[in-house]
Specification:
Length: about 170
């Protein structure tokens, strides 16, 4: 089993599981070390998979409040964050998080929960007041989001809008 096959198997295993899956157990199943599984999970998160660690192992969020979860890879300038958030929330989505894959620090992810223009404007205003950098500043604007939507049609509409705005790089 090569790396790509193993990562696909990890996602499938987590999607099928009803309880957390232990990294050591997966390592034994796939014939690699626990550290390899941990690294695979970090890379899968960077690709937008909503995997979280619990004390008994990894779980993948299949739904969020009854909604479907999708990953998107985006790139925009610092001033493009409003366009990005509006394209998502105006079309029925919620931005759950932002993740970057930093060359030195590895995967960095932060929860956002931007569900409306009010949330988006509040986030942007707080960043301006604090004169704070955006996480995507670390990666020349490249980042991923986990987006919660009621259905696939909504996700398609969001992707179309992000594409029109020149923000969507790919679906994760």
């Amino acid at each position: 089993m090569n790396t790509i096959e193993r990562r696909k198997a990890i996602v499938e295993r987590l999607m099928a599981a009803d309880e957390p899956v232990n990294a050591t157990r997966m390592a034994g199943e796939y014939g690699v070390t626990r550290q390899i599984i941990v690294a695979d999970v970090a890379l899968l998160r960077a690709e937008g998979y909503p995997i979280r660690a619990e004390h008994r192992g990894y779980v993948i969020e299949k739904k969020h409040g009854g909604r479907m979860l999708f990953g998107i890879v985006c790139r925009h300038t610092r001033d493009g964050i409003g366009d990005e958030f509006y394209a998502i929330v105006d079309n029925g989505g919620e931005v759950l998080d932002v993740t970057v894959d930093h060359a030195i620090y590895g995967t960095i992810s932060v929860e956002l929960h931007i569900a409306s223009r009010f949330d988006a404007d509040d986030f942007i205003e707080k960043a301006k007041r604090a004169d704070a950098s955006q996480l995507s500043d670390l990666t020349s604007g490249l980042h991923t989001h986990t987006v919660a939507v009621p259905d696939e049609k909504t996700f398609e509409r969001i992707c179309e809008e992000l594409t029109v705005r020149g923000i969507l790089v790919e679906r994760a």
